């Protein structure tokens, strides 16, 4: 994009679509369909039977992280000093986004 200086606010979806369309000489609908396709690919790779990770070359890596279950345990409340029990937590999955070298060097 050929902007004079960056805005203080992050760009909206419309601004992103317009900027990519202007820079690549594609229509806004084509850019939107490319982003929808990318979203579909990411969803396909991250779902339970997928690979579990998606790599956007040079920028970032998205992966599913499995968090193990935690048992109920006893501990001490740091404010009152009284003993209490912390509830058990079931196993869960979350998404982790890792920046790659090119993205790190942009900052």
Please provide a written account of the structure:
With 107 residues, the protein is an alpha+beta fold. It has two domains: 1-51; 53-107, no CATH class. Helices cover 35% and strands 26% of the residues. The chain has helices at 13-24, 28-46, 101-106, and strands at 53-56, 60-67, 73-76, 83-86, 92-99. The chain has a three-stranded antiparallel sheet. Strands 3-4 form a two-stranded antiparallel ribbon. Helix 1 crosses helix 2 (28-46). It is elongated, with a radius of gyration of 21 Å.
Structural descriptors:
107 residues; elongated; 35% helix; 3 helices; 3-stranded antiparallel sheet; 5 strands
N-to-C SSE string, H for helix and E for strand: HHEEEEEH
- Overall shape: it is elongated
Number of helices: 3
Unreliable residue stretches: none
Total strand segments:
5
Q: Gap between N and C termini, in Å?
A: 17 Å
Largest sheet, spatial ordering of strands = 1-2-5
Overall structural domain count = 2
Describe the biggest sheet?
3 strands, antiparallel
> Pairing-aware structural class of the strands and helices?
alpha+beta
Write a compact overview of the structure shown.
With 107 residues, this protein is of the alpha+beta class. The protein is built from 3 helices and 5 strands; from the N terminus they run ααβββββα. The protein has 2 domains: 1-51; 53-107, no CATH class.
